[in-house]
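User: Could you walk me through two proteins back to back? I'd like the raw sequence and the structure tokens for each, with a short line separating them so I can tell where one ends and the next begins.

Assistant: Of course. Protein one, sequence then structure:
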Amino acid sequence: MTLPAFRDPALLELALTHTSYANEHPELAGAHNERLEFLGDAVLDFIAADWLFHKHPDFDEGRLTTLRAALVRVQTLAELARAIGLPEHLRLGKGEEESGGRERANILGDAFEALLGALYLDQGIEAVRAFLVPLLEQALVRIMQANLDRDAKSRLQEWAQGTLGVTPRYRLVSSEGPDHAKTFTVAVWIGDRMAATGRGSSKQQAEQAAAAYVLEHLSEFLQEGEVAANPT
């Protein structure tokens, strides 16, 4: 899939404009995608909930809630953004560009939500639904096959305790950036080995990212050798 066609190209351009770009271009008068992100977040939540409700009439409220959370979390939205080629169209400031912002999950997820908000303003809810549901269909298959509607930390703990008899531990490695936009890096240790690091806009998000990475690379982790018990 590709980016949707817009009747008003200015709305699409605004959805793809990060604050860092607007800050470097005074002629934009601060025009960036954060307000569209706010709107798109609400549109996404509604369409995802409505679609899940009708697609799975046999699922109870709890299961529907966890599936929706898995569909709208930042990692999933970043994957959907990549699937439609959104990163290459983002307008980023030089500093954000040089620091890898074009691949940063939170930037991609926010821009994807802004795109939905812009499409809603441009053509209405049914246009958003027609664009979004095929993407949700693909994401849901992967989520359900891998049990990704359960959070990564819980799944990693269950696996590590059941397979290795150890409990994963998380340590903050660093925090960077201003107080209102920090990026945290967290390492996850399994026994005496550091298994992976994860980054996120909160410690909890970074921990989830680290756990998810380990789960996606379990075979490589096990090939690296035996794991000793947690050091005391």
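----
Protein two, same layout:
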Amino acid sequence: MKFLTHFRKFVIVILGIFIVIFAFSGAYNTQNIDRLAYVIAIGLDVGEHEPLKLSIQLSRPGSTKSSSDQSSDNNIVNSVECSSIESGLNLFDSYVSRKINLSHCKVVVISEELASQGISDYTYTLLNSVEMSPHANVIICKSDSEDFLISSKPILESLASNYYETALSSSEYTGYTENVTLINFFSDYTDSFKEPVAILGAVNSEQSNSLSEIKNDNSSNSISDINKDSSYIAGETPISSKDNIENMGLAVFHGDKLVGELNGLESIFHLVVSNKLESCNISIPNPLGDSESIDVNLRLAKRTKNNTKFVNGSPYITSNINVEIKILSTTEESNRGNSDYFTKENMAKIEESCNKYLSESITNYLYKTSKQFNSDIDGFGKYAVKYFLTMQDWNNYNWLESYKDSTFNVNVNSTLKSGYTFI
């Protein structure tokens, strides 16, 4: 018995030694963290001599600097012309001293030129990679994606990877864009009920600022002028931040090809119709006459109810929208009590003004998606499929091509809550 007991202890000790040896032997594997180069952003452009120019932004190991000058030094961007993404990554492996790894990639930036030619092959390739996160954001850039990556400077973040995450989270409180991921884009592209969108990005420059000033000077006085600060797209905002990136608006696709753009205000309408709006600030016409407009905070009071039916063979789409608004701006007259916004009569006038403005604006937005883009980015197709007995009948009808024949009826019901000033 003593022999068996000692023998068992001996076997356990030997097994323990082998486990420790094999556990720590992985530290010398080629996949060790010290032997990997982590890509935090990928850029795709049309190449001059090859079909594709692939750019990668690498994270400099051990870097935690936060100033704009220091962060630009840590912004490692390399580019190569290649025939495919995989071949380009292989070329980078032969150039960089470490193995390229995509597991920490936060964004995929695609130039407008490439997106207009079709990007399905690239999305398939990226999602097919076991390293690539399906939650990486998709940005369509109005300039070369290489310039976009070079211009990304994490001023308020110590890590560039955190910078991309926080920069894109602004959609939660502005509504000026949508947080579109690689898997979202791919799912909408392969769907027969709707079309995909992507984040619209650009490099802020002096030239773009001048362009936005010209647009404002030449703008006509119309109901949309009250929201001119929300009507910019990326690359044309008047923000003074030379050679830095900005994301505003949405890139609209028909299939896998870019067909148009939505500005910040139209992006808000898209989020309202598709039940994705969390919060935003807009201006509505002031029916009380003491100012041109009233700034309000806008939220969905209930889920938007969309419905699709067919009239004479063409889609007839109804959207019933319920919103809650809170007044953000007041005038001197209202503060003196000469124009009390919160009398029962005036509250009804403000709600009616909001209803009319949103109804007209959202209707114009929907006709733009159908007549100009022929792109059902709001997914009305899922309400139309119930009229078809089989999927074959649905596919034969070809909703994504028939969306251009749609007519719309938008109804908005707004409820005015006490403004923050009056709580």
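The longest helix spans residues 344-372.

Let me know if you want the two compared in more detail.
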